[in-house]
Specification:
It contains 22 helices and two strands. By secondary structure, it is mainly α.
Length: about 550
């Protein structure tokens, strides 16, 4: 039942569920364990002579709860809570066997596995007003324990681990909503409220840490360091993505940059202790946790570098890009041994960090942000965002020295070129010629790098997206009101040659990359239509036939 889910994508995106097979096999196993537990408890009621010792029965409850805490399913947390409720009803008054704080942590872990499901929307409340999402349920459990502890039950005092699990569940639920908003129309106001609750939990965790330090009871185990660092990393992931509006209270008003600074201070202060804590009796387990700590720190920087608020404008994008640049240089200085606050735990910039910085910069070029005053601001920037992105990419290519780079980096820059026509301060009156030429050079460089094995395309549609970006420039360049017939003829020939090139790579890769889609189809036909040449009809018919041969059908519009 305990599955190893620590492959690269799962560790970077824990709010995505694993394969349906993994979900099904673990769910079935936990269901069978639950049925066996119910069978044993019912048997005790029917055959009073064969009573199971309380210690073994409690252990059985814990085993089944642990099973549900390892199942990636939308009901995992609920099922684990149900077991805890039955367990509590039977042993709640027994000081020797009553549920402990560790059992509530197990429920939190189960809710952590419940994230990323169709039930993670703020509209799924039942008539009683009960919480619907794993994030809400985690907060309810924490509030319950806080109330019980305040009432005098010292055995159920929330600790750093519980706070960290709560933050992790809320983060996973929030990021799931954030990524799927365009499809399901999530409640932005509700996301803001839940994000503020997360910051409140982080503040409670810091209060507990301060109490422990004052009492000289600081937990210096590697697990404790992991929980603290993960909590900060998760908080940064949320605050860097979700706009908190004007609802901050004075006590929890913190930006993601401020949280990152707090994390850096914690790492600097505890650097030696964290490294020493990895040398325990179980070296393999400690090393695994140590690697997870480093991954959390890297993730914190990735989140901050790629900070994109859900409510954004040019000034916000430019401020984010400036902040990202400062953080990136801070990382480089540390890795180069220049910085004063050194630590072996501070990561050197990775390709993911470079991509985050590139995305933060090219976000400034989004056409939706255009206003005349912003155009003037862009004109006065020392290094234009798309040129900075290209420079960073070239530096990364040299740094990687033959090690493959993810092709999505090149796709990001290709998108930036499609936004340049919105900004007169960049195109200087030549909206498409120089932009199209630069985008074409980027494409040629990308495919050359791919042929040399220096690029991998982890997503099947990445190359198609790069080609479509260039096709969109050709379609806009071919405006019907253009009177430059030579230019229009040259543009159409270039567009058709581009399609030949795309088809070549599709066949060369055995259909793995560069597969034309309906969007490709539409952009090429639009370019042909806008040309106004007598041969346009025959040319369009030829494209329709070629597309049909590639399995792409036209959409009626």
């Amino acid at each position: 039942i305990t599955t190893d889910m620590n492959f690269d994508f799962r560790t970077k995106h824990p709010y995505y569920p694993p394969s349906e097979f993994m979900t099904s096999i673990t769910y079935d196993a936990a269901e069978k364990a639950t049925c066996l537990l119910m069978h044993l408890t019912q048997r005790q009621k029917q055959q009073r002579q064969e009573k199971i010792p309380p210690s073994l029965e409690v252990q059985a409850y814990k085993f089944v709860m642990n099973a549900w805490s390892n199942v990636f399913h939308w009901s995992s947390g609920d099922r684990c809570e149900e077991i805890l409720e039955v367990y509590g009803q039977k042993f709640g008054g027994d000081m020797n066997y009553m549920p402990s704080i560790d059992d509530y942590k197990t429920v939190m872990k189960a809710h952590l596995k419940s994230c990323s499901s169709r039930y993670n929307t703020s509209t799924d409340h039942d008539d009683s007003g009960a919480a619907a999402s794993p994030g809400e349920k985690a907060l309810e459990i924490l509030n319950l324990l806080n109330n019980v502890y305040t009432a005098g039950d010292l055995f159920l005092k929330p600790d750093v681990e519980l706070y960290s699990h709560t933050i992790a569940v809320v983060k996973n639920a929030l990021l799931d909503w954030q990524l799927r908003r365009r499809f399901h129309g999530s409640d932005v106001e509700f996301e803001t409220e839940l994000s503020l609750e997360l910051l409140s939990v982080l503040e409670q965790m810091e209060g507990t840490m301060a109490e422990a330090a004052t009492a000289g009871e600081h937990d210096a185990t590697i697990q404790s360091f992991h929980y603290i660092i993960r909590a900060y990393s998760d908080a940064i992931a949320v605050v860097s993505r979700i706009h908190l509006g004007d609802k901050h209270s004075a006590s929890i008003e913190r930006s993601s940059e401020q949280i990152l600074e707090t994390l850096e201070q914690f790492i600097t202060s505890n650097d030696d202790a964290i490294i020493l804590s990895a040398g325990g009796e179980d070296e393999a387990a400690d090393n695994a946790i140590f690697e997870e700590i480093k991954r959390c720190i890297e993730g914190a920087y990735s989140s901050q570098l790629s900070s994109r608020l859900s409510v954004s404008d040019f000034n916000t994008a430019l401020a984010n890009a400036t902040t990202s640049e400062q953080i990136f240089h801070r990382m480089k200085e540390r890795s180069d041994g220049i910085a004063t606050n050194k630590s072996k735990l501070f990561p050197a910039p990775t390709p993911d960090h470079v991509q985050a910085l590139i995305r933060a910069n090219i976000e400034c070029l989004s056409g939706q942000y255009f206003q005349p005053e912003f155009n003037i601001t862009l004109e006065n920037i020392e290094e234009l965002p798309h040129l900075k992105a290209q420079r960073l990419l070239k530096e990364l290519e040299v740094q990687q020295a033959g090690r493959p780079i993810d092709g999505s980096l090149y796709s990001d820059i290709a998108w930036a070129y499609t936004q340049i026509p919105y900004w007169p301060s960049i195109h200087k009156g030549d909206k498409y010629n120089s932009t199209t030429k630069s985008a074409r050079e980027l494409l040629e460089h990308t495919m050359h790098q791919y042929s040399q094995g220096s690029i991998i395309f982890s997503s099947v549609g990445t190359v198609t997206k790069i080609y479509n970006n260039l096709f969109s420039l050709y379609s806009k360049k071919m405006a019907r009101n253009s009177r430059n017939m030579k230019g229009k003829e040259a543009a159409m020939k270039q567009c058709l040659a581009l399609f030949d090139d795309m088809e070549y790579w599709y066949e060369e890769s055995d259909g793995v990359i560069a597969k034309p889609d309906s969007h490709t189809f539409g952009l090429i036909l639009k370019t042909i239509f806008n040309s106004g040449f007598p041969s346009s009809f025959d040319c369009a018919q030829s494209i329709v036939q070629r597309m049909a041969g590639l399995g792409v059908q036209a959409k009626q519009r």
